[in-house]
Amino acid sequence: MKKLAIIALALSASAAFADRGGDRPSTPSPAPAASGPQINDPSIQATVLLNTAVINAASYGGEAVQNIATNAGNVEVDGAQLQLVGAKNSLIMNAALGGEARQNLASNVGNVEINAMSIQAVVAANSAIINKAGFRSTAVQNVSTNTSCSTCD
User: Which of 20, 32, 49, 107 lies deepest, with the highest CB count within 10 Å?
Assistant: First the structure.
């Protein structure tokens, strides 16, 4: 049943994204190099996992950054956007042990500007979504969120 819900969400969102409308140019204008990536058309960022284990680890030197279905940094989105992370028997983990671990799932982090409809969803079943820093810690975890804090120093 949950699998059907994830598929239905993705399909309904895809249908909503299919109609671009006539008010946008058919050829996207390139973004200036200093401003970062620009997405002008409908965008789907999807990670669908079944018997899941996604691990990002650093160790004693620290700093582990994990982004799944996420816009991070200086990004502008002018088209409709779906960010979806689906997991079933899951463990999605981020650890740094020497300090500073950042994990973002279906999130917009940093200087991200969205000028259209946006759907952010994390669907997990028998799950554990873990973010751990350790030692001289900083641990930041974003799940289906928007934040302007990309490093949270």
Answer: 107
